[in-house]
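Anyone have tokens for Major facilitator superfamily (MFS) profile domain-containing protein? Sequence:
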Amino acid sequence: MEVELKDRKPSDSSESCTDEKSYHSVKEDSRAQDVVKEGKEDVVRPIEGKGGQADPDAVIDPATLDWDGPDDMDNPHNWPAWKKWYATMTVALLCLVVTMGSSLYVSSVPVFQARYHVSRTLGLAGLTFYLLGLSTVIFAPLSEVFGRKPIYLFTLPISMLFTMGVALSNGHMRMILPLRFFSGLFACPALSVGSGTVMDIFDFDEVSTAAVLFSLAPFLGPVISPIMSSFAVEAQGWRWTQYIQLIAGGVILPFIFVLPETHKGIILKKRAKKRNLNLKEFTKEEQKQFLKVVLTMTTLRPVKMLVVEPIVLVFSIYVAFIFAVLFGFFEAYPIIYSGVYGMSSGVSSLPFLGIGIGLWLGALFYIVVDRKILFPKAPPGTPELENSTSNRTTPYRGERDPKTNELLPVVPERFLLGCKCGAVALPVALFWQAWTARPDVHWMSPVAAGVPFGFGLINIFFSVIIYFTQCFPPLMVASALAANSLLRYVVCSVFPLFTVQMYENLKVKWASTLFALICVAMLPIPWIFERWGSKIRRRSQFGYAAMIKTENEREETDGDNYDDNDQATLSRVATLQVYDDSHSMASVKRTSSRVSNGGTSGRSQAVIRAEPQESMYDHLESDHSEASLSDRTSDKV
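Reply: yep, here.
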């Protein structure tokens, strides 16, 4: 059995994105394999025993496992469409259940005040503690070890038990607050692990559409749950705010039981055990190292990135504020529609439907932008995919060179288009609500203001998340998203505690106007990063530029000990950097001038960018000195 790495010609440059994972998994697994160079080909053979046969007793590193081939149906990318969408929507509905728990509780606070003589602020602290629990992301790295499905099955029932405890607490806040925190803590994996499930299933040019529909569910959760809980409290009592979540969790649990595992490593490990392969066991030292990585990635690094990374700090503050306004509306809407328009408790929650409609419209708008502008369909005549890691043959979507029809990387700042539209819509919505929420204006006007608010909210969020994934390497992306989630839920947990006082003292007009003015101050953010984003990324401590600098320093230190595995790592860093920034606005001119001066060792950056990753690797491998690498990346970093 042989796996060949061929020096292919770029039949379709989109392979430069999709082949990277499978290619580097082969290159980096060379420790467990014998590599024999034959001319222009690297023939990679498994470890052999006596007689030239594969040794069944050889210890195999689980990291070296891979699919049997492009047609391997265990590969989630090869699943039929119904199976992909079943997994996606099951996890999406799980996120819906989890986020419902935040605002379902709010409707019980007036009952706590009247029956148990609890202050409004203390009663709302139950929402604060639940959101603080959701801010943790400790379970996301664990899903890389145990799989996605076990994390869902382990944490959801525990969260439901704590929710039941709240319902049986008889209004004692000393019990409700810790129960709410742990309910949120064990509910958070749905939010932090769910996106990993979607990424496991869909190709890069398809994942945006799937992610939009997946992310719509946790947005709708806080919007629709006040409607259910308000009418339930009026008819059955405050405990039904918790019973609704328990019922919803019980409904989704059977679907999780039959949910297929999507994590590649876990699928391959289980299959290897069925085939009686001898897999390497992790030592205690390796387990300690893993725990150290988990602690760093989930707690220390996110906090540091909030301090030293302008991209993470500014956009996390932006997203945290607009989310905080949404959660502040849980208290503001009853003041507006009960206080100004005299609606009952249940009816006063119906205006949240305006925000829900805006969320749907915003999601549809983002899908159109993604399909038509960010990832347009390949033009007629584009060759089908060859040597794909899955059975897909349809050419990848994306921007292509009009002359060569080669797939070009997307500039990270291009993904801020949705953020620009949302940044304009938000202050319009808040000014609209502020100046029409009065008795002489029909209630339909402030309700309609929720439409552009929901539209702007979801477009800003999607754009920021995708922008992060383009600006940082994979492990750093996890920390950047963790930083965003941490700040978002911490700020959201605080806003409801003072929203009522703010609207009572400033009145509806000026309280909403204050929010609108803050949104106006933040409105230029996407345009600022469009103009200076590339420069900021080059100075990043955790971006691709920092990775290349680290690899250069390690090469200098290692000297003659710089082996093939180091070359693979170094070439991967260079490849990712080229992918990240090779088509940026500032670098195109520099690249063209360097080509004219013969400064790229006979081949232009454009050619390197368009070739598949194997050819890129061979090109760097032929001359991997520090000077050669510097020539290829100095104008990109």
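Residues 1-54, 562-637 have pLDDT under 50 and may be disordered.
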